[in-house]
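go over this:
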Amino acid sequence: MSAWWTGGQRDDVFWRSANSGAMAKTRSKTGKSTFGQYGDIQATDPIGQPLLDYFTIEVKRGYSAYTFMDMMDKKETAAMQQWEQFFHQVDEDRKNAGLDAWMLITRRDRRETLAFFPLRMMSHIDTYSALRQCPHIIARVDLKEGGSLHVYCCLLQDFFDRVSPENFR
C-alpha cells in the first residue's frame, strides 16, 4: 500500500495500527475520538493521511473456511456469518472515524488478496472504467441485523494497478 501511494518510493507510509484499532474502538464507546487509529491501518507519515481521511481499512488474513459467498447462501435462520462480522467491524470503524467509506482487505491461505469496498465508492474513482475491466464482483447481500450491503470486490493488486492515489488526495 505504501509503495502504491508513493509511486514505489517508500514502504513505510502505512502500518498496522496499535492493537488493530482497539484503542479507538474503546474510546469511541465513551464518545471520544482517537486520531488515526480507526481500523487496522494507520498512516505513519502525514503524507498518507489523505487516504485514511477517505476510508478506514480493515485487514483479515486466513479464515480459509469462510468466504464472502457464505452471506449469499446462508439459511434465513443461520447465525451471523463470519464475513458479515468483518463488514460490521469495518463499518463501525468507519462510523466512529466519521468517514463515508471503508475498505476490507482479505487474503485466504494460498490465495490472492482481495479488496472489498462500498459500491458507491466507485463513483469517486476517476479510473472506474479501468478497474471495471478487471475480474470483479458486484454484490448485494442482506444482513442478519437488517439492511443490505452493496459491495464491489476486486483483486487488491488490480486496485493498485488501475486506481491512482491522486483520486484520494
Summary: The first strand starts at residue 14 and ends at 16. The chain has one domain: 2-168. The CA atoms of residues 21 and 77 lie 31 Å apart. The chain has a mean pLDDT of 87.
